[in-house]
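testing teh design pipeline on a random one, pls ignore if ur not involved
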């Protein structure tokens, strides 16, 4: 079976029947997933378990005094147990244990401190510290230690400071993390006027200069992006910036520093 069949409408429609949370008609022909070779079963599982916007870390209620967290659908911001058949596909057969942890491997994993109130942060005050604590909790967990090549995204660096950034370098210097995207809160402003656009570009150059002077070359798997850039901002950037500054701004938005 080649990739053209996998990407074809017929195959995708069949797979969607079994990952769609809506009830399935009894008239639909049984899809004999376990009759496929392992390679094909894994491809089906990847298709079913990949979420467009990735997964986001959320703390849940304390259990016996211990902190507990899990990943949720980023676009719906709901508990992962409510994602229906996309999760349950891994419970169809013991033969599907070959796809263990696949959901974690194929999605971008976001850490953003959105519901830190569910975890006891009495001695951790800053946004950056709480976000990095979430990431450290996940990376140091015994179930994470066997994973490799994950794509991590964090919203942090509200103030670009050497100790904060250095700790993040140490934390992510591991084979577990293949890519690290940082949405920098220190590099955010509402783009509406010429002054705000020029300030945005200046802030980007300041961030780049600081990181270069402080660390030389950052880890090759790092990318730092401005936070909260939306599609309409491109028109505003184009309106007020020179061609050179516009290209710099768009490279920052699309590729990061």
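output:
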């Amino acid at each position: 079976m080649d990739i053209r069949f996998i990407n074809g409408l017929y195959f995708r429609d069949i797979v969607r029947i079994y990952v769609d949370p809506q009830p399935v008609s009894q008239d639909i022909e049984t899809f004999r997933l376990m009759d496929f070779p392992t390679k094909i079963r894994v491809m089906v599982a990847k298709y079913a378990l990949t979420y467009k916007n990735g997964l986001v870390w959320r703390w849940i209620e304390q259990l016996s005094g211990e902190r507990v967290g899990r990943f949720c659908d980023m676009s719906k911001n709901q508990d992962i147990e409510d994602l229906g058949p996309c999760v349950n596909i891994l419970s169809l057969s013991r033969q599907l244990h070959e796809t263990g942890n696949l959901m974690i491997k194929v999605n971008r994993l976001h850490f953003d401190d959105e519901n830190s109130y569910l975890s006891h942060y009495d001695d951790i005050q800053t946004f950056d510290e709480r976000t990095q604590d979430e990431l450290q909790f996940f990376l140091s967990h015994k179930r994470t230690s066997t994973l490799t090549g994950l794509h991590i995204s964090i919203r942090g660096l509200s103030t670009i400071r050497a100790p904060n950034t250095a700790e993040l370098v140490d934390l992510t210097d591991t084979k577990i993390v293949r890519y690290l995207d940082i949405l920098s809160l220190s590099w955010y402003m509402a783009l509406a006027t010429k002054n705000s656009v020029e300030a945005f570009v200046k802030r980007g150059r300041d961030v780049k200069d600081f990181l270069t002077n402080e660390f030389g070359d950052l880890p090759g798997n790092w990318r730092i992006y401005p936070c909260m850039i939306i599609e309409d901002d491109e028109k505003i950037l184009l309106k007020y910036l020179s061609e050179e500054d516009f290209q710099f701004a768009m490279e920052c938005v699309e590729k990061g520093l």
